[in-house]
Amino acid sequence: MIQFEEMGFTPGILKAIKELGFEHPMPVQEKVIPMMLGTENDIIALAQTGTGKTAAFGLPLVLSTDPEMNSTQALILCPTRELCIQITGDLTDYSKHTGDLRILAVYGGSSIENQIRELKKGVHIIVATPGRLIDLIGRRAARLNNVHTVVLDEADEMLNMGFLDSINEILEEVPEGRRTLLFSATMSPEIGSIARKYMNSPSEITIGTKNSSAENVSHNYYLVHARDKYKVLKRIADFEPDIYGIVFCRTRKETQEVASNLINDGYDADALHGDLSQSQRDAVMQKFRQKNLQILVATDVAARGLDVDDLTHVINYSLPDDPEIYTHRSGRTGRAGKTGISIALVHLKEKNNLNKIERLIKKAFKPLPIPTGTEICEKQLFNWAAKIENVTTGHKEIEKYIPGIKERFENLDREELLRRVVTLEFERFLGDYRHGEDLIAPVPEKALRQEGRNGKRSRDNKDGDYTRLFINRGKSDGFYPEQLIDLINQNTRGTKVPIGRIDLMKDFSFFEVGSDHADMLIRALHNKQYMDNRLVLQKAQEKTERNNRTNEFRGKRSSQRPEKRRSDKRQKAERHYYN
């Protein structure tokens, strides 16, 4: 592995590298830096955000820029204000021991007059968003005739934001003999078009696989009912006490609603979207970078160029329509050799989108079970216990209060005291999950029926003798095979009930169980409260089943209002079994 000391940097740059804590070059730096310093080639580098690419082009730029020459020699274009500021800060750090190198960030939302004044003084490196730079070129404030290097950072993001015409206009302003470097997470046809038009036989460097997400990121999904998305998001946050992540939503409205709900439910969260003013965006981002927020809820546009280290999770509350956007989202975690987790909340209609993303990133998503209330309480409890175990108790001012506290608790034994402390600490979790239902993922009916007929669950019944049962729940209740199986499992713990064929109607269902278990199951479930009504569970009778099926068929062709048909059919079916 080549080291920074072997790359030809000046002592001043090496000193800055050491002060920044860089020990060894990252893969993108290992490949790009020697090529920038040793050749004149144009370069296309395909690398995810957070892989160290700013230093890959920034360190050689600092080395190759002459502070004695009072003109702009390098131009860096990037998609957002936040990234513009970050790159400028990084380059300032790299050049702190190399003389008077002037670096200026120019972007919208800030005073253009101040930027014009700084440009008139002379700037060696401009870091700019395309829109603002076009304005400055039009006012003849930004002069690019001496630029020898142009860097397009996060080029795919700039194109997604509609900056293609601006980029073309800017590149027409720089000398033809300049060097062009293009950094992108994905290689789209538009990127290829820019490369063909403005680059001269570029060398291509790929870190990882083209159009892939970060190697250190695990890709997971929860299959959920659309109505349960927010409940599942809360369970993920509760199941991961140390979460520090971004939740991506599709629209500004959804972003604000999800963030508001999280805030109202007591989570350290906030929203980032296009309806916020620049000062509001800055305030939210400052809180998030300082980890005063655990969860940032954002749209893709608002989060572009956002660079935050140490994210543990990226959660796709809604999957993007464009699979490539997923690679940008997931690439925000798992940086600098650390591991990260990308989660998608997916309902059945979104499975095709998930499959497209899997093909693009060449990785399979792992399905995860929705955390139960019991699992969440246990995870939170043990996390809290670990914090108590590791807390520092060196505060001397506390000592004077200890005798009085001991006196208050002298009538409580250790176990009772612990019980009360846990109850007080976990009141919210216990309240949310003590009697809360466990959320059930939707499962394609066809797949579960096949499992019921041929799978491990149902064919443990050695003699193959099944009894057919009637239950007064159906599709209109959101009652599907997985709900039925979960209902049986929850009420027959310790007993493996063989399940055969499942036939779902709108308002009731029939299913088979091993005959040895039928009576036991009826005793366990009949008259039990479920979904806010009591269950009817009886052995099905051939004549009644035939009549019910006929009524169901006729109901589909009836001109009655659906609500009345449902009520009439259910009442008829239930009257038969109650009487």
Summarize this structure briefly:
This protein has four domains: 4-206, Rossmann fold, CATH 3.40.50.300; 217-367, Rossmann fold (3-Layer(aba) Sandwich), CATH 3.40.50.300; 378-433, no CATH class; 445-578, 2-Layer Sandwich (Alpha-Beta Plaits). It has 579 residues and is α/β, with parallel strands linked by helices.
Describe what you observe in this structure.
This protein has 24 helices and 20 strands. By secondary structure, it is an alpha/beta fold. A seven-stranded parallel β-sheet has the order 3-4-2-5-6-1-7, sandwiched between helices. A seven-stranded parallel β-sheet has the order 10-11-9-12-13-8-14, sandwiched between helices. The protein is globular and about 90 Å long. The protein starts with 10 loop residues before the first helix and ends with a helix. Residues 445-463, 552-567 and 569-579 have low confidence and may be disordered.
Structural class: alpha/beta
Which overall shape is indicated by the principal axes computed on the Cα atoms?
Answer: globular
Mean pLDDT: 82
- How many beta strands in the DSSP annotation? 20
Count of individual domains: 4
Largest sheet: 7 strands, parallel
Portion of residues within helices: 40-55%
Radius of gyration: 31 Å
How many helices does DSSP assign? 24
| Amino-to-carboxy terminus distance | 82 Å
Architecture of the largest domain, according to CATH? Answer: 3-Layer(aba) Sandwich
- Give the strand order, joined by hyphens, for the main sheet: 3-4-2-5-6-1-7
Q: Multimeric state of these chains?
A: single chain
